[in-house]
Each structure stands twice: as structure tokens, then as C-alpha cells.
Write a structure and sequence with these properties.
It is a single chain. With 253 residues, this protein is an alpha/beta fold. Helices cover 42% and strands 15% of the residues. The protein is built from 8 helices and 7 strands. Strands 3-2-1-4-5-6-7 form a 7-stranded parallel sheet, with helices on both faces. Strand 5, helix 5 and strand 6 form a beta-alpha-beta unit. It is globular, with a radius of gyration of 18 Å.
Length: 253
């Protein structure tokens, strides 16, 4: 009996990454969870295994190319790569934004995706049915005030996915971009505002039902589990209350 295919999920210590690992495991994949926080991914992997599925944790910083290359040598039979590691820092205008924040966002959201994709692409091709998923953002498709650095980074991730798809034509690898809109997770906005929970809460203030991490994980899993000849090039997913990055319905108290 053939063993279950392996799916690698980056940034799997919480939020969308952890939810995606759970969903893919339930769909029959052996999931490898990666993130910098070893204790967190080990806890999620243990939870998945206790549920009767298959998962393992591997501590990894996607911006560390040497570590990524070492990771690739440990997993030579990979069917799916979900590039989820990313994040936003700050909400300053371009005029006063910190170049260090911009650099860090680019390193994680773009170079991190590049590192994992390059390192695992040979295994994905060899699988005969590989899938690369890039979790971008609606920020990569439309800008907004105070989002310059994050928008620039997610545009980079979007273009990476588009270019790779062109370059993979004729090879057995699909390239899927999932672009979520407003998602309320336990860490995204709090990290962006450097631990200021009051500012983080205002992002979702009055929005009855922002997306959850599991909503996005469900979307990723659906796209990945389509028949091999079906490629979901781009799927934009927003809550019903959000018509665009700048138009959100907020209920008054």
C-alpha cells in the first residue's frame, strides 16, 4: 500500500498555517509543520497525531537558506508545499516607514517563499503531481494607505507565483495563489502593531464575521485536492462584509 503524500506547511505554529496543517492531515496528507517556534509546532503536530492523522514538526526559519537546504535533504518525497510564513510590520505611511520593517517583510514574504520553493521544487517535480501554494493577500492586488511595505512584499509573492506558473508549464507542478482578505487570527494584527492589542482590535471593530484561519485553511485544502489537471491559478477570499481593501461594512454599536 502506497504511503500518504507529504505536504509541507510553513508558518504552521498558529493561525492559518496551523489550521491548514490540520485540514490537510484530515484530507489524508502526512503533514510536515515548519516554523521558528519549535514548541508551538510540536504541540500542533501532537494534536494532529492524537486525532489519528499523520504530522511531524521541524523547526525552520524560512529566511535561513542554509537551514532550508538542509531541510530539503531530509524530505525528498514531497507532493505539496504551502508557503504560508509571512506577516506585516507596522502601518506607517511611506514617508516615515522604517526601512528595517520593509526589509524584514520582504525577507519573510518573498525570499522565504523563494527559498522553500527553490529547495523543494526538484522533489515536487519528481512526485509527478506537485503543488506549490503561495498564501499572498488581497494586499498583493490592491494597495491601501499605511500598507506600503506589506503591499510591496505581497506583490512580490504574487509575482513570484505568477512567474513560476509560467515557467512550470509542461511539468507536473501546479502553482496556486490564495489571496485572503480580512482574517481575524490570534496574532496577525497584534504582531503588526507590535503587541498593541487595542490597535489590533480596532482592525476588526464592528465587523460581524471576519474570516477565520479555518476558513482560509478550508480554501487551501479545497484548491490542493482538485483533480491533478485542475489548476486554481488565483483564489481571492474575503468575508462578506469586505468589498475591497478599503471598503468594509462595520456595524454600529
Amino acid at each position: 500500500m502506497a504511503s500518504a503524500p507529504i505536504a509541507v506547511v510553513t508558518g504552521a505554529s498558529s493561525g492559518i498555517g496551523a489550521a491548514t496543517a490540520r485540514r490537510l492531515a484530515a484530507a489524508g496528507y502526512r503533514v510536515v509543520l515548519t516554523a521558528r517556534r519549535k514548541d508551538r509546532i510540536e504541540a500542533v503536530a501532537a494534536e494532529i497525531n492524537e486525532a489519528g492523522h499523520q504530522a511531524m514538526a521541524y523547526a525552520l526559519d524560512v529566511t535561513d537558506r542554509a537551514a532550508v537546504d538542509e531541510f530539503a535533504t531530509a524530505f525528498r518525497e514531497i507532493a505539496v508545499l504551502v508557503n504560508n510564513a509571512g506577516g506585516a510590520l507596522g502601518a506607517d505611511p511611506v514617508a516615515t516607514g522604517d526601512p528595517a520593517d520593509w526589509r524584514q517583510m520582504y525577507e519573510v514574504n518573498v525570499i522565504g517563499v523563494l527559498n522553500l520553493t527553490q529547495a523543494l521544487l526538484p522533489a515536487l517535480i519528481a512526485s509527478g503531481d506537485g503543488t506549490v501554494v503561495v498564501l499572498s493577500s488581497t494586499a498583493g492586488h490592491a494597495t491601501y494607505e499605511g500598507g506600503g511595505g506589506y503591499v510591496a512584499a505581497k506583490n512580490g509573492a504574487r509575482v513570484l507565483a505568477e512567474t513560476l506558473r509560467l515557467e512550470m508549464v509542461g511539468r507536473p507542478v501546479r502553482v496556486i495563489e490564495i489571496a485572503p482578505g480580512m482574517v481575524k487570527t490570534e496574532e496577525f494584527a497584534t504582531t503588526r502593531f507590535r503587541g498593541d492589542t487595542e490597535k489590533a482590535a480596532k482592525v476588526y471593530e464592528g465587523v460581524a464575521e471576519p474570516l477565520t484561519a479555518d476558513d482560509v485553511a478550508d480554501t487551501v485544502t479545497w484548491a490542493v485536492t482538485r483533480p491533478p489537471h485542475v489548476n486554481v491559478d488565483l483564489l481571492v477570499v474575503r468575508p462578506r462584509a469586505q468589498a475591497s481593501n478599503t471598503k468594509v461594512h462595520r456595524e454600529s454599536r
